[in-house]
Amino acid sequence: MDDDEDFQALFFSETRELLDALLEHLNLMADEAGDSETVHAAFRAVHSVKGGAAAFGFDRLIGFAHIFETVMDRIREDDLALDNQLAQILLRSGDMLQVLAEKAEAGEDDAPIEGLDKLHQELAILAGEEPSAAESNSAPTDVENTPDEAPTDTPAEDSASTLAEITCRITPEDTFFESGHDILRLVRSARDMGLTGVHTEGQVAELAKFDPNDMGLTWELTFQTERTIDEVEAFFSIYAHTAQLEFIDENQTDEEDEDPEPDDEGSQGSGGGTDPDGGETAPDAPPQAAAEPAAKAADATQRPDQGKPGQSRPASGPASRGGDPSKSLRVEIARIDRLVNLVGEMLITQAALAQQITDGDENHVSDMAHSVDAMSRQLRELQESVMAIRAQPVKSVFRRMPRVVRDLAEKLGKEAKLELEGENTEVDATVIEELSEPLIHMIRNSMDHGLEDNDTREAEGKPRVGTIRLSAEHRGERVIITIVDDGKGVNRERVLAKAIDRGLVSADDQIAPEEIDMLIFHPGFSTAEEVSSVSGRGVGMDVVKKKIVALGGRCTLKSTPGKGTIFTITLPLTLAVMDGMTVAIGDQKYILPLSQVVEALNITRESSKQLPDGSNLLERRGEYLRLLSLRSALDLPPLDSSKEMAIVVDTETTGHVALTVDELIGQRQIVLKSLEANFRKVDGISGATILGDGQVALILDVPALVRMQSSGFSMQEVYH
Amino acid sequence: MSTVLAVDDTRALRAMLSDCLKKGGHDVILACDGVEALDQLRKHKPDIVITDLNMPRMNGLDFIEAARREPEGKALPMLLLTTETAQGLKDRAKAVRATGWLTKPFDPKQILSLIEQLA
Amino acid sequence: MTFASNQTATMENGDRDNAPTGTDVRQYVTFLVGESIYGVDINLVREIKQWTPTTVLPNQPSYTKGVLNLRGTIVPVHDLRARFGGALTEPTETNVVVIVWIGTKTVGILVDAVSDIIGVPSEEIRQVPAGHAMGDMSAIGGLVTAQAGMVALLDLNTMFPSEEETNF
Hints:
- The complex is a heterotrimer.
- By secondary structure, chain A is α+β, with helices and mostly antiparallel strands.
- In chain A, 36% of the residues lie in helices and 20% in strands.
- In chain A, β15 and β16 (616-620) form a beta hairpin.
- In chain B, 45% of the residues lie in helices and 19% in strands.
- Chains in contact: A-B, A-C.
- Chains A and B meet through α1, α2 and α7 of A and α1, β4, α4, β5 and α5 of B.
């Protein structure tokens, strides 16, 4: 099937979600915070993964999910007590399931996985299966049956020579009709199989008086058909659930007869669900094999067992797709509905407006104003709704972190607890995708450099197990994500020594403790020398910062020696909307991203200085900042303005710089528009927005502007 | 051509079932659990139901049991399609008047011919 | 602007059958810049707007007047007079911006006024004589004589190539 790949992609993306949820439940269980519903949900997640895997024949995944499921089932049934040790095994199994799914997705269903066999064994023991016995267990259904004896008056309607003559006796149980079967439909369908005769035994009710509950009939259907008995049996197998079946292949040796039920059995039906012959119903096999119970005669011809996973479908090849195939978004239906409704409303308003314009007389002006008002409101709501569609809870990223912590705990030999908070906080979908890597990085950093090892902690009177708390919350139009650890804080001496060593600061500099902390975000700070196997993957915290800034966010850190460290990431809710500070230069207005604005200062004669090369400096609380004229940076005609102001911005790469503007107009939220859509990239401009009066205002790319102005100006930005 | 209600909490399986059924020329209604399935049953009056067993909110057995009480579900063929093989569950399936028991992975041909046969 | 909407009506009714039959007749919107008349294929004209002040872009050729807001999208505006080597236009409310399609992009052209819509049979289009001295004539795709005088038909793609080059 061509679509197999698509279904597989769907399966894997769903499996990721299921496993995320599974780990969440398992974590709750490990924290003894779960209830029976948690266990149940975890069970269901494993089960669903198994079911999906079965559809695609990922055998190793199925096998592991199966044994895992069995263990979960025993916990669910209180057969197994959930203690810490078991909880840890479950968590590891959850991780393993993720690994298996990843391997399957990568088309490496056979690639060896470290620890898989061992974990499988552990689970098998917990499942109460002898590891060896597990195999024989794979065929759980038996075909054994009580051979009953009954007279077969095989009515042999004269066999056409080449056609096999097969007879099926079907005796509906009293639930047959209530279970949605219809004997007339059966007979009709059977015609296609080459049905040549129908006999009934027992009381024949008139069709008009036919009562579904009036059982006691055995139907004997005779086929003269090119089909094999297997095919005929396959046709009937679905009825085996609620009827006794018996097959007689006339071309085979005559078999003993049987009559599973006395004719009068259940003739009154007595309706109820009780099985009149509970013992005889016999162990049900999978449907394909289910015809056997009463069909001694057919035992000789065994149908291929389709019950085994992966056998009946053409084994679909390994999914050979890399990366995340799904750029799709799952959206609550309610949000879509709201959009649909709004669009509907707008169409109505638009129609009204069109009508009013056609009518064209002046009395309609107020109506039109009304409609325009309505439309403006609808548009605003539409915009909000569209934004809301892109909003997704951070949960999907947060849930990956416990595994990160567990892995690290093992590698570092440090026990640590991860607390998650505010997982339902919503952020723009693009942001969520990009958030994972920086978060993993920061958590690594906290695990590796923040938390002390368990013994040290104990010796210092701290709880033996360190805690990392990852939380998210909305604050105004922004999302704040914090990573708090209760470790030892930034080792300022070491950081400073390293920074001096790297030439980032000079040994003579007086650097405030907070500034030392921030040095870890400096691009020059953590280099390859940082070769702890955990944090040191050749990237440092500067990468984290870069990533966050690229998302329009900010990244800060606060550390208290001996107490711990707080990383704070501030992000805009959506990427298309940002907070900006509007400034004016002449008659033009510009937007500075608020995330880059540090403060606004008045420029006084005393505070502005000039260097011999003509470049300007601004004194701020005892330090000097570069003072750049936005007017000249933006190629605007020079103008003597006495009321210039300085906006201090953080350029990320070159620290704080002061920009002169004519006027500070204020903060506002702006919707980003592209210049490139109809024009091209303009240096120093990151985009544009439309102001309330319909004018276009450019959004300044501050770091680029500063770079453009500083060709030939390569000194450090802060002069102490 | 029949209207088939396919119920499964696994999106991938829903999609596969739906695809298989549509290729067989049937109209397909989907539901992701028993609660939704009941709702769909009342709304769309399908000719046949194929349902998973383990599902959140309402499992396949409870769904069938409930559906049998609905006028739309009284005589409706309702097949269970599951990875389960436990006898106890099959007994329950019988007790709630499930039409038949199929094991996953499903065989598209088998599903289609069963629909021909039952619906 | 009534002028523009009248023109729109004309454009829509613009009737090819009036022109000599049997030849390929194309409709052009003509507009005035000083004494000159320019024409643009009507299919490429999106709308005609009264001039409104634009937002200045830094570090651009002088003929780029900046950008304007066209119902939520940002559209650059170029001064046609300056583009052909003339003086920069000091636009007032009487000036007009012709919004045109160039490939997938929408661009505004600042002119003095829109003048007419003319049907031009393809065989009446004359080549620009070689060796013409004034300005950059490669942006003129051809010349045609109308009632009002000679019309220079603009080849938009070569006129503002930068719009085309990027983003592809």
